[in-house]
Queue: 4 jobs
Job 1
Amino acid sequence: MRCGWSGAHEHARCHQIWTHCRAATLAAGATTPYGLIEDAALVVQGDTLAWVGARADLPANLRQRCTAEHDAGGALVTPGLIDCHTHLVYGGNRAHEFELRLQGASYEEIAQSGGGIVSTVQATRAASAGELQAASGQRLQRLMGEGVTTIEIKSGYGLSLEHERKCLQVARSLGATHAVDVRTTFLGAHAVPPEFAGQTDAYVDAVLQMLPTLHAEGLVDAVDGFCERIAFSPAQIERVFAAAKGLGLPVKLHAEQLSDSGGAQLAARFDALSCDHLEWLSDAGAQAMAQAGTVAVLLPGAFYFLRETKLPPIALLRQHGVPMAISTDSNPGSSPCTSLLLMLNMACTLFRLTPEEALAGVTRHAAKALGLRDRGQLLAGLRADFVLWNVQHPAELAYALGANPHSQTIFQGQVL
């Protein structure tokens, strides 16, 4: 019998077993590096992992209940990858700004002259929902081709109720039409649109009017903001966070990318899921994140693409026990990247993470950065989202620059 996408009742009874593999469970507190299990077996019931361990330890009665057996061919198995910070839905591109930066213009100078986020806002507003869906779908397919099974997609390129709604609806539609779990984040406080030039507080008022409407329409899983001197002040972001808290929505923050604004401390006061970028994070900010359980999301693609020189304080994050996630930050201006595997390599080469830290950063810690407790590790009771790779050791996923050893993705227990 074969479990298919249709026939949910039959699917719930179906037991599948995967053998002839090595499993990097990435389990918290594992006694082996990567939580690696040699000669492993994974049993799937419906869309859930029912058992994970050494094949020799598999209970006989559980083996007998399996109705489908898969030979993994010696593959390495990891949890499905999670891209926990993207701006995937947008119109146009900013290749011209790439040229300007190579000629010496800074990110801030480009933004202040009408480029940057505002230029993408214009292109996104001009694009139809169908055009955004087609372009974003291509980007999503490339990420899925590298084993991504969960992705966060932010708004923030509409900056009006009509266009923020359009972008969030496209994100929801991508989740409905692709075998991937899409989490949506409202990033209305991303930049000040042209019609509010010089009226930042008034635009924050507009954001506060958008949020409850979009939330009521089921389009918002979390709320984000850009706390920076070229964007919004801590006091303005606090207003947005207070509104999110009033709606029961979790928050996250673009923090300390270009300067230390105290954004990490602000986010921690609101028990933020994550603070992202963090090149200028202070010791006080790291301590606040640790106490709040806030994840540090590191974005090496943006660091590389903008030719930044200020490294995020990895030693400080380690010292305070702040979990570190890794993401593509896929966006047109500072990280036009659709390769999470490349981010593994960059996190190691640029930020000096270990390959194990990097892989945990796109699985276990990335799940935590999205507030998801049902994935990111290969453990009984969690979602059956996992990936087969044609490699011998987990470090190879971060090692081979530009390679894609992806073999197969299993999403909610089903082979894609």
Note: The radius of gyration is 21 Å.
Job 2
Amino acid sequence: MSRRIQLLCCRVGRKPRDTVLTLVLCFARIHPPEFFKKKYAVDEAHYVTEISSVLASKKPAVLLTLRGVNTDSGNISKEASFEGISQFNVNNKILHPEIAECRVIKTDMELEVLRYTNKISSEAHKEVMKAVKPGMKEYEMESLFQHYCYTRGGMRHTSYTCICGSGENSSVLHYGHAGAPNDRTIEDGDLCLFDMGGEYYCYGSDITCTFPASGKFTADQRAVYEAVLKSSRAVMKAVKPGVSWPDMHRLADRVHLEELTRIGILKGNVDDMVKVHLGAVFMPHGLGHLLGIDVHDVGGYPEGVERIDEPGLRSLRTARSLEQGMVLTIEPGIYFIDHLLDQALRDPAQSCFINSDVLRRFRGFGGVRIEDDIAVTATGMELLTCVPRTVEEIEAFMAEGQGSAKSFDCLSSQKQ
């Protein structure tokens, strides 16, 4: 059997800094290869200047290099290249799908790191909840989150740009970017939707908490929040190996439609609402995504798994069936986005289910998203995130934050 040398001199993170091979500055100490063998527990280590000669001495039939498309982002991984590579038989097609599949199922060691990123990020979210007050800037909350993650958890980086939406900004799905840099003043009566996650050794977390800036939900805020929480918990109860992720999205959608009908925003038969994709008007994104070294991790659409071309479902970042060892986010949300609401009101197939008088009361409401990170187990799931979730827990925790808040006991993080 011919030998294959797997050449993994490639990016493994989200940013240029995250590389397998690191350049050593001329004034830094240069460690011998034995140092790196011990540090990384590998069988063999050589300087990168020797890569061509070392590989040639092994006489490989083929070098496998990593090149392929991330089906989530559309980006192409940067392939390894070095002086002298032209002398080898190189195949850049075999390795990418294999490595992507390896990243889908987490090892026990990877799960430990992901538990840690969730623990620190959860605590950072709680610090923000204790500190927030009307009159503060959204970016103050972003700064506090980052400060806690770094000082208390050694997390120098976040997994993505923090989303700190208050008021109407809470309905902007990817708010917080350079064009809208979390710069609004938080006002009394606002809902705050803060989507933030710390990163440790390239492993991410992705947590969203929604809560009232004043510490007390209004009746309408409570109704919408509890609708989203109900869908989140329904999905968590249903998660287990073999379950279709698109079916979990459909489950969340149905719960939202039932609850919006109960609130009075919608009217009519829920089955008929499902047929016209009314749920996507209020939740235009997918239910969740794979999580790991990338916050939207690779492997969502391997060969044989096709994207579903329907509103809402087409935004799912994976359509796989769940397997033990997968780590995903569960992030249902209900948003009142004027553009989507106006479109629905112009569509006779959808507008017949909308109570326009009640809907008018929710214009400018913003949105609610509840996002937790979970690991699929043999019989269900493990909840990695640990933050106050019910209305009662949030209000009590924020009230205590005015004085010396006692630690929140997250009993719900037990394995199911």
Note: The chain has 13 helices and 13 strands.
Job 3
Amino acid sequence: MRINGNRRPFSLATRLTVFISLSTIIAFVAFTWVMLHSVEQHFAERDLSDLQQVSTTLENILKDPNKTEQQKIETIGNVMATYHNFAVLLLNGNNQVLYHSPDGPNLTLALPSVHFTPQSDAGNYFIWSDSMKSSDMHSDGEMKNMAYRIITRTVNISESTKPVSYSLLIAFSIDFHQHYIDQLKRNLISIASAISLMIILIILFAVYKGHQPLRNVSMKIKNISSENLDVRLDPSQVPIELEQLVISFNHMIERIEDVFTRQANFSADIAHEIRTPITNLVTQTEILLSQDRTDEELKDVLYSNLEEYSRMAKMTSDMLFLAQADNNQLIPERTMIDLRDETTKVFEFFEAWAEEREVSLKFEGNHSRVEGDPLMLRRVINNLLSNAIRYTPKKMAVTVRVIERQEWVDLIVENPGTPIPEEHLPMLFDRFYRVDPSRQRKIEGSGIGLAIVKSIVSAHKGKISIASDIVSTRFIISLPVSSR
């Protein structure tokens, strides 16, 4: 059992389903509430209109000067007999009941909730519930509560003898309307539940189908291994939301393939580099042991073997240096150095070899100071100058220039000779890469000098580039004036 304090996030499918389902259901519930509210409002307005109509009719009867009070009560009884679902309670000024609908509810129970005002046109509206008598119980024996919408009126009559005041309570049964609304609510709840379930299922299906391109991409990525790193995904075959992801994945695969290719080539190259001196050592030793040799011959073989050992030791040292650079363990010292002075020191070291190859060395530029590691930067100049002298024709010159540009200092090593094809320029800093693989490695060095140059320049936060044409080949190193 794994105990993890951080709870795993919900899946995208779950998030989308919950979010879209809740949004849709909330919208549907809001629509249902608005519709029910509209229906209730419509019934309320209609009920009030009917109540006001009855109230006006009864007020006109009570204000008729040609009828006695008894005649008015009889007329009210006759009129109310024509109205269904209506009930009336008529009170005099002493709150004595003059008339009440015989088949209606006992409206006297509602009097505590009523406040009559003396103005003839005043009144109020409210809903009142009344429990039916036991004789009106349903067949299941349960008491039925009846709801009424009541309007109240105070009718003031100024007669010749004395003023008369009547209080009217007119009730309208809203049980039918309430039953309709309750039934509508039950229907809407049932429909809403079914629709909500259907919405969730539809959204689940839509999310599943919507994630199909993502699953397809995942399946293609899953099938990629070190044996088929040349596989690329087609950005035009995925939705636009996944296009950038596919492009980024292709770039990543390109870098990984490049690393695998370089690693494979590197392993083959280093095996070849080591095999050559070992083969030479074995061959010379076998020849030496094949017959008796003089002391002078033994010394010659030992000196030859020493050269091979020195070459292997240098190669091992260079490879360890590059391994440190790859692991970001190459940390240069920080001192201010003069590029002109450092170049002059390297010139003195290569002067004899350059004269032997009939190549001259030239320096152009002023004293330029940069911050860096003197030994490392001297090694950069050494490797570039050695490479330049090797490929410079006789009677020609290798030129080293120093150019200052605001926050950068450019160190340019230029040599005439056969131009390097443009397609080879980006790979010249790769380990063991050679423009002409047929050249003898023993003559031309280990093949990792330029890789070391690039590592040192990168460790100094600098940049290196190369340009080659029919005039010359130029290695351009740009170092910051101060890398702190």
Note: DSSP finds ten helices and twelve strands in the chain.
Job 4
Amino acid sequence: FGGRAIMVNDKMIVSAGKAGDLLVRVDADQHDALLSEPGAAQAEMGAGRRMGPGWITVSSEAIADDECLSFWVDAAMSYNKAVTRTNQN
């Protein structure tokens, strides 16, 4: 993904980009609502190559403080836990 990824349960939750932005894996059902958060945008893998629902890029300015960064890590962890529970059943 072009950055340093954090993996939980063998799945990526976030990846820190070289420009300080954050690629976040979230529940696709929450995708549109989360895009309304400050600094959030549809993730792309290269110019014009949009990733699917559940992949969001957050600007470095929007995660500059711990509270904002925690919001996105929590959203990613919630999705990770839900997927892990589903896969265990």
Note: Residues 26 and 76 are 5 Å apart (CA to CA).
